[in-house]
Amino acid sequence: MNHPRVEVFDTTLRDGAQREGITYSVADKLAVARLLDQVGVSYIEGGWPGALPKDTEFFARARTELQLQHAVLVAFGATRKAGVRVEDDAQVRALLDSQAPVVCLVAKSDPRHVRDALRTTPEENRAMVADTVAFLVGHGRRVFVDCEHFFDGYAADPDHGVAVLQAAFDAGAEVGVLCDTNGGMLPSGISRVVTEVRGRVTGQLGIHCQDDTGCAVANSLAAVEAGVTQVQGTANGYGERAGNANTFTLIGNLVTKMGLPVVPAECLPELSRVSHAIAELANLTPDDHQPFVGASAFAHKAGLHASAIKVSPELYNHLDPAVVGNDMRILVTEMAGRASVELKGRELGVDLTGQGDAVGRVVAAVKEREARGWSYEAADASFELLLRGELPGAPAPLFELESWRTTVEHRTDGAVVSEAVVKVGLPDGDGGTERVVAVGEGNGPVNALDNALRAALVTRWPQLADVALSDYKVRILGWTGGTSATTRVLVDTTDKAGEWTTVGVHENVVEASWLALVDALTYAVVSR
Amino acid sequence: MNHPRVEVFDTTLRDGAQREGITYSVADKLAVARLLDQVGVSYIEGGWPGALPKDTEFFARARTELQLQHAVLVAFGATRKAGVRVEDDAQVRALLDSQAPVVCLVAKSDPRHVRDALRTTPEENRAMVADTVAFLVGHGRRVFVDCEHFFDGYAADPDHGVAVLQAAFDAGAEVGVLCDTNGGMLPSGISRVVTEVRGRVTGQLGIHCQDDTGCAVANSLAAVEAGVTQVQGTANGYGERAGNANTFTLIGNLVTKMGLPVVPAECLPELSRVSHAIAELANLTPDDHQPFVGASAFAHKAGLHASAIKVSPELYNHLDPAVVGNDMRILVTEMAGRASVELKGRELGVDLTGQGDAVGRVVAAVKEREARGWSYEAADASFELLLRGELPGAPAPLFELESWRTTVEHRTDGAVVSEAVVKVGLPDGDGGTERVVAVGEGNGPVNALDNALRAALVTRWPQLADVALSDYKVRILGWTGGTSATTRVLVDTTDKAGEWTTVGVHENVVEASWLALVDALTYAVVSR
């Protein structure tokens, strides 16, 4: 393929903010813009100044607070109202006032929307587009035009949208963006329409896809293959309904699969970090299974592959994960052999050189434990403790357990109360032991035990004050056989710097939880 | 397009189980298979009998416990080992023993994998395929062959994989499935290779795509457009790394966008419910933004379009959401409209004729409770109790609760002991109340409570002696807001005749479990 330069237009801060549950502050928006710039997108659409006060403020602050290296800032807006002179339209004036060098105007391109939503004529609609484009271009702005509902409109009347597009180009628009606003298209349909439209207008075309058929990325790529040169997407695919084409998946595919250098080479390894950071700013859990950048995107569970992966990783990955700043994670499972343990050790930064015997003991321990229901694939912290326990300089246990007891009561007055008492011996530094008895309350037996154990340990290890249980999963493993069910507990724990996962297995669910808790706090002390 | 019949092959229970964090019990697998059958897929791949003991048990139990209406059960397996006679290969024998009518064999079709992973020759590899297919066909099985790493192999050597495919067809295989095992393909590449391969072999082709480029669905559809007639996917796209092609998105697109009736018409509206129920069984949060079936898939953020949507919803949706059992502007809470409740009532054998008011109260109660974290999608028994509670002849509560207390101790001798005391009032038959105090032991606080409550009730209802808790799932629902997390517990309970699921929600995990237990035992008394 001999393509003209293809550019990525990111609309995380405008269309992506339509996703249910996302509410950015202006500071968030500035931070997201900086991150998007770090992955090297060409355009960052920041919002709709004039329509949304927060977006007006964003553009005002961006002038002094945002130094972009790669991207150009874009203001989104509408064409002038029907029957109003463009220079009298306050919304259009606000686009100028934003001082964004590029304006992206939305234009109705489905005749049914012109009639039913805009309640005007196709002629006035085209005049609104032409007037607004010409006015902004006359004031020195570059103008792109989003042709909303283009594909549905094209199916209803192939001439209407093309006429809108041509009106925009004639008035000086630089790019006409074909939008699958309702997201119902498939790649073959996109390909056909783009090819037809390219034959009917002169001007640079863009593509904007929603993911309602699960094909937003593929639709965008089909449009690029058919000749569009601007691709719109959002970080992590955030957007209304099923979301938008995912900017990071687009970049991954355009660069590594289609050979189109849409971002500077040095930016590509920022992809994974930026994806996770934007998820944090949006206050959403990162999708571990997101292509290219997800924590599991290069994780291998099937044990039958682990030894072969060590020899030839390229046979089992579609891409070297380092290219997009990701990492190959090996899941330690019951089928794991020495190769998996060695790879995992390398990933955790544990030097296993000359530790063949220790590796053998870890493999044996993992097999023996997983046969009894333990699972280390999600519990990296427990695995690291197991591994360190077999190596020279293994950390000593934090305490000797004497006993614990936890109680939950539903009292006659309806109150539900949980309490726990923990009795442990702590090393006193002189080779002796100091006996500590501590009590905790909580919203369940495990939460109470966690609070009691931390109360017992926190005077010795003050960092445990910042440690908190953040998630808790229980599985009954009926199928492991024996007379009574085994229970597996996974505990997620956080401190200020991050999160780790530990595992415990026992017939008794609270003892299983206790084992996971002890690993969680031990990890906080020895490995954080 | 004039297509031969296209069939959907679901591998949720085999390849989908490779997703990190998924561990199904055999009962879960049977439940997932029943749900997949309800959406009308043609094939359900249940697992790898012989290799995984749980899968061997699944196929054994499926023979008596699984009555499929639409789907045919498929056993996955490998070809015979290199240098071993097929009739001497225990793994191949286990495939016969599973009694699955269809076997799907995996065959290496990338020459580099044959050399580096299998460590044999292309000739022996083809012989392994041919011998195993012929052996299984000779024993009356239908055989499909998954050509692993087909597309990467095709890029390296276009003849190798085609020869494997032809060997399979020559030996009697019914379908040769082209697998993008590493998931690195884009639709145009899939289209080209499928077209070329179709010109070189005679036989029915299938497609299996992984989502590492975010194009698994589009890749699968491109293959169908190029002539394959079997499409593999997994529920909600669960699978290794970025996951597999999503069975539900595939069905939505094949039926509503491409006009291919891959599932019976009456099954399509089951799509959303089944998607959510399988997420519950996998103990994963349903993806609200999943195309077609997500709770937000047809949700429109307030503002902009609201009034126009009311007038012409078809202008703002790519599809009428009811077609796939979804709803416009739904939250999960709103999935239970009157129609769903009536439908569900009919399914449960509850006559709702003339019960419009009661149905309205149930809809309101479900909405109110689901807003607080309850979920009835997987908890049919709790839903039935809620429904019966609003109808004439509503069953009285089994008992009045005075109080309960449950204790778990890790004693100084290392023994872990759980006990519970339950104090209830039972109706004495003369309008009075008999006070009963009962104690139970168990392998955890909930098991002890279950035993204590059954001890309190079993003299009045002897059938409770045969009732046992069989599975238990806990989910922390941090997102319901407030100062402390809410916990949802799902309890599976069995008696001699079958299994039912109940739900409880509370800040305290043991109180949530108690609520689910009370529903479980009440259901055993009033509905079994």
UniProtKB/TrEMBL annotation, chains A, B:
Signal sequence bounds: none
InterPro entries: 2-isopropylmalate_synth_dimer, AIPM/Hcit_synth_CS, Aldolase_TIM, Citramal_synthase, LeuA/HCS_post-cat, LeuA_allosteric_dom_sf, PYR_CT
Biological or metabolic pathway of the protein: Amino-acid biosynthesis; L-isoleucine biosynthesis; 2-oxobutanoate from pyruvate: step 1/3
EC numbers, comma separated: 2.3.3.21
Catalysis: reaction(s): pyruvate + acetyl-CoA + H2O = (3R)-citramalate + CoA + H(+)
Domain of life: Bacteria
Residue ranges occupied by any Pyruvate carboxyltransferase domain in the UniProt entry: 6-275
Biological process terms in GO annotation: isoleucine biosynthetic process; L-leucine biosynthetic process
GO MF annotation: an example: (R)-citramalate synthase activity
The entry's keywords: Amino-acid biosynthesis, Branched-chain amino acid biosynthesis, Isoleucine biosynthesis, Transferase
Family: Belongs to the alpha-IPM synthase/homocitrate synthase family.
NCBIfam families per the UniProt record, alphabetical: citramal_synth (TIGR00977)
Protein name in the entry: Citramalate synthase
